[in-house]
Design brief:
heterodimer, A: mainly alpha, MetI-like fold, 2 domains, globular, B: mainly alpha, 12 helices, 76% helix
Chain lengths: 276, 294
């Protein structure tokens, strides 16, 4: 490699690192703010480097807001949504991929079409429905409209279609039924994509704002993304506390991403169709 | 007889497998979809009965100034986000893709991380950074405009800043799609191009770009649809203000339905938004396909 080429490469690498550092700066700044005292945050001397390790605002938001309630609501609803979406999607995709029944083509067409429909256009009547079912301010109300994730079915169908037919025949000869095939053969063969889809479904459910914001009106039933906006109203401009509550709210998904980084990137690529 | 029995059993199993999804689908998707059409022809409140008014709601939309303001703002927001985020994401993807091993994984993680944050976390952080009195970005505004700017209370700055925040939040997703696209380009093509004496710029124009075009089309389409549906960031940062300068269609649906109790009118606006999204996505998809085929 020529010297010019090598210099160009180093410059580009440094540029990338500087760019990434700038990109992540807002999170860094939120963290630095969160470990300062409120006085320090707005003082003239507050520099870019953490100069204080003050957890007062974290303790304050943990005990003086409904944060623990919101965690509970977010965890319960996101876990239930993830389990139901994955299991019902997998079952439906299996039938679409491996079985013949009347209405199969229509059902797949509906799945593909609903993938295109913006659910935001349905929030008004979904709200009316949840109201008539008595589900306003309940976990059921938060969960139900989030159970339709067509892309899970589309991805599962692709993966089930690719399973070799011989795997099937061996089980059928042993007298195994369709449920045995799905849970003992097709699912174990596709654990990778199942975890990937589950993680991304969980993150999306956790981050959902519009629907929980509409269906919940009492503070104790709010999820994290809706609840933490209340802290703003309660505290006014107390930025150390606001940044503490924001970072605490983001922590579960940030951890899920950092632990399962490769699965998350894989799931994003597969579910948007750039990698199969 | 046996085959008849087996056939029925087969069908029963198939239906039991699709039943959970079909049940939820009919309950929270199909039924609300039918109801929203029905409701849009009535003057009903959010909860309760209304009277059939035919096309009155749609006629009202066409004479509602706020509707045109919202539509214009949606369009402006698209101009501010779709192409910039695509160009930025492609640049970042090309830079990150050059790297290898842990450094690449680390850089990708840093660029992607904001995407997995809840929207309110994003808006809280940026509201702090842009705070009129104490925001760390205010010196930059002071440098360029001579004084600090209350960005979310300024009709000129509000949309560009919501766009900046949105791009910061969602760009990682686009970077990832481009990285996937770049990884799908066969390495042999670069080797062949290098043997023919192509420099890196020629390699990009002749090899990378033509093969990356389908991903670019995908990113543009997804972004366009996504940005048409903008609500969360606008609501949290400016609530549509000041003077409706960041009012968008979905915010209008929310206001009409949940604050002004106009279920029928809100349904009609929601349906118009729905039609706009469908038309735009079909049109854009066709246009991009034609250009990509050349």
């Amino acid at each position: 490699m020529s010297t010019a080429r090598r210099i160009e490469n180093s410059i580009l690498t440094i540029l990338t690192i500087v760019g990434a550092a700038l990109w992540i700066f807002p999170l860094y700044w939120a963290f630095v703010t969160s470990i300062r005292s409120e006085d320090r945050v707005v003082s003239e001397q507050a520099g870019l480097i953490p100069d204080e390790f003050n957890l007062a605002s974290y303790i304050d938001v943990l005990f003086n807001t409904r944060l623990l309630n919101w965690y509970m609501n977010s965890i319960v609803t996101s876990v239930i949504i993830t389990v139901v979406v994955i299991v019902s999607g997998m079952m439906c995709a299996y039938a679409l991929s491996q079985m013949r029944f009347p209405g199969r083509r229509l059902l797949y067409g509906v799945v593909l079409a609903s993938f295109m429909v913006p659910t935001q256009a349905l929030v008004v009547t979904q709200f009316i429905l949840m109201n008539s079912l008595g589900f306003i301010n309940t976990w059921a109300g938060i969960i139900l409209p989030q159970l339709i994730v067509p892309v899970v079915i589309i991805v599962y169908k692709q993966f089930f279609d690719a399973v070799p037919k011989e795997m099937r025949e061996a089980v059928v000869l042993d007298g195994g039924g369709e449920y045995t095939l799905l849970f003992k053969v097709y699912l174990p063969l596709n654990w990778g994509i199942t975890t990937a889809l589950a993680i991304i479904t969980f993150i999306m459910a956790w981050n959902q704002f519009l629907w929980p914001f509409l269906v919940v009106t009492t503070e104790d039933m709010m999820t994290i993304p809706v609840g933490i906006t209340q802290v703003n109203d309660a505290f006014g401009v107390f930025y150390a506390r606001l940044m503490s509550v924001a970072l605490l709210g983001a922590m579960p998904v940030a951890l899920a991403y950092l632990v399962f980084q490769r699965r998350v990137t894989e799931a994003v690529m597969i579910s948007s169709g750039v990698k199969g | 007889m046996a085959t008849h029995y087996n056939r029925r059993k087969h069908l029963a199993i198939a239906f039991s497998l699709v039943a959970p999804f079909v049940f939820f689908f009919c309950l929270v998707f199909l039924w609300p979809a039918i109801r929203v059409v029905e409701l849009s022809f009535t003057n009903g409140p959010l909860i309760g009965e209304g009277e059939w008014v035919g096309l009155e709601n749609y006629r009202r939309i066409l004479t509602d100034n706020l509707f045109y303001t919202s539509l214009k703002n949606n369009g402006y927001f698209i101009l501010l986000t779709v192409v910039p985020t695509t160009v930025l994401a492609l640049t970042i993807a090309l830079l990150v893709n050059r790297l290898s091993g842990r450094l690449q994984a680390a850089m990708l993680a840093l660029f992607f991380l904001p995407y997995i944050l809840p929207v309110s976390v994003v808006t809280m952080i940026w509201t702090w950074m842009l705070d009129f009195q104490f925001g760390i970005l205010q010196p930059a505004f002071a440098f360029f405009t001579g004084k600090p700017v209350p960005v979310f209370k300024d009709p000129y700055w509000v949309m560009p800043m919501v766009a900046v925040v949105t791009i910061w939040w969602t760009n990682g997703f686009n970077v990832l799609l481009f990285i996937a696209g770049l990884r799908n380009v066969p390495q042999e093509l670069y080797e062949a191009a290098a043997l023919d004496g192509a420099n890196s710029r020629q390699q990009f124009r002749r090899v990378t770009w033509p093969l990356l075009w389908p991903v670019t089309a995908l990113v543009l389409t997804l972004q366009l649809i996504l940005q048409l549906k903008i609500f969360d960031q606008v609501y949290l940062m400016s609530e549509g203000g000041p003077f409706n300068s960041s009012y968008v269609l979905l915010l209008m649906v929310y206001r009409e339905a949940f604050q002004l109790n106009h279920g029928g009118y809100a349904s009609a606006i929601a349906l118009v938004l729905f039609v706009v999204i469908m038309v735009v996505s079909v049109l854009q998809f066709q246009v991009l396909k034609v250009r990509g085929a050349r």
